[in-house]
Amino acid sequence: MSIRACAPVLLGCLTLASVSAAQVRDYGNRPAPRTWHLGQQPALRIDPDAVLEDRVVGSVSGIHVRPNGDIVVASEAAGALLMFNRQGTYIRTFGRPGPGPGEFDRVPWMLFAYRDTLVAIDNSGKGQVFSTSGEFAKQIPRPLSTSELFPEIVGVFEDGSVIVSAYSPSSATDADSTLVERVVWRQRPRADTLERLLAFPGYYRKRIGGKPVSVRFDPSGVLAVGARALCIGYTSRYDIGCFDDSGKPIARVRRSVPRRPITEADKDYLRRDHLGSNPRASRQRLEEEVRRTRVAEWAPLFGSVRVSTSGELWVSEFDPSTSQRGAGQLLAPSKPVRWDVFSSLGDWLAQVWLPAFFYPWEFGSDYIAGVAFDQDEEYIEIHRLLRTPVRR
Fold first, then answer.
1. Is the pLDDT of residue 255 over 50?
2. Vertex 354 angle, CA 254 and 252, to 5°
3. 214/203 Cα distance (integer angstroms)
4. CA–CA separation, 122 and 3 (whole Å)
5. Looking at 28-42, 134-148, 154-168, 215-229, which range is the least confident one?
6. Distance CA 289, CA 94 (A)
7. Distance of CA 11 to the CA centre of its chain
8. Contact 57, 48 (CB under 8 A)
């Protein structure tokens, strides 16, 4: 696979600075124009243990709702994709654990969809492509590493183009830190060339006493890929730019958000996350690693960024759980989390509060699909999104 440099007509030559002033929506410290709500009860709740006898559906790492209401679930515990109908009845399984085509090396790690196609990425970085009827179509190789670090598939455009993200140290270096850029590439269908789309700040690699250190909750670059749009931002400012799949800048939204200090509760989350993510390691060693972990003084000004199935931009407030990825209960916040919703052109539509112990995997025009946790139990939930204010 070869690499092609950014050309002027491609998305890669555009950055936040290239979005014209006419396309910027600066909302300052204004309150949300309205509040949308979820239905009082989930429209559908699937208890995997109750519907499957010989399969395990734990550790969900992705959910997609088909236009006909069928639900596809990426399950790390099953090592496969599982499909349910709109009533929550199990229909079929896609893929299985294994290293070959149509199989998941270790576990399915991310799930994307376009048209009538599902793309699941496993822990090795390969993509397995299926039709929604369960037929295996092809395997996408793990992205090649050039000078960039940690290349991975992060999304798929509606035309089937694969979006790849990686990290690259920049020349912006001083005595205490080095800027590591986040680089985004596009591979079009039936092409063996990666087109560089854009680069933006990923994080700063800091040094203390000449030695590199990792600082948790430091600002970082975020990226969200939808069917027809790509949005980027850096969490030190609430300033997010979006581009369509042809490379045209379409929106840039800003808000003035008061910063808050990192709390002891945030630090306790880090401790529980580190211990829970390494159950086989020595607890004494893990506790020592937690004690030596450096933590930022101030929290990021926003958390996650998503593009909905209808092209809207969803931006969450910061919660320590938004710094994680993968599957499991530690992804779910312990308190309700506010999300801002913007149109594809940057108009601020509403705010939505999602419940505690719920992690959203997909935002639709009239639903939110995710996983709810009740102590050690994991449930797949589809919530109805009510776009009109609720009368009290």
1. yes
2. 15
3. 10
4. 23
5. 134-148
6. 39
7. 20
8. yes
d(CA 362, CA 327): 14
Cβ(303)–Cβ(324) below 8 Å: no
Residue 314 structure tokens: 């969803």
The 3-state DSSP class for residue 61 equals: strand
Count of other CB atoms within 10 angstroms of residue 27: 18
Lowest-confidence pick of 28-37, 52-61, 94-103, 172-181? 52-61
Whether the predicted pLDDT of 282 surpasses 50: yes
E-state strands within 209-347: 211-213, 215-216, 221-225, 229-234, 239-244, 249-254, 294-295, 305-307, 313-316, 337-342
* Residue 350 binned pLDDT confidence (cut-offs 50, 70, 90): very high
Give the tens place of pLDDT for each residue, 300-330: 999 999 999 999 999 999 998 866 655 565 6
Determine contact, residues 322/355, Cβ cutoff 8 Å.
no
Tell me whether strands 96-97 and 103-104 are parallel, antiparallel or unpaired: parallel
Residues 6 or more apart whose CB falls under 8 angstroms from that of 291 comprise: none
Which pLDDT tens digit goes with each residue over 113-132? 998 999 999 988 899 999 98
Radius of gyration of the chain (CA): 21
Q: Which of 361, 356, 252, 363 is nearest to 310 (CA)?
A: 363
- Report d(CA 292, CA 378) in Å as an integer: 32
Tally of CB atoms within 10 A around 344: 19
Q: Tens digits of per-residue pLDDT, 40-56?
A: 999 999 987 666 655 56
Name which of 313, 121, 133 is nearest 228 in CA terms: 313
Q: Cα separation of 43 and 367, whole Å?
A: 9
Q: Are 284 and 278 a contacting pair, CB within 8 Å? A: no
The pTM of the full predicted model, rounded to 2 decimals, is 0.90
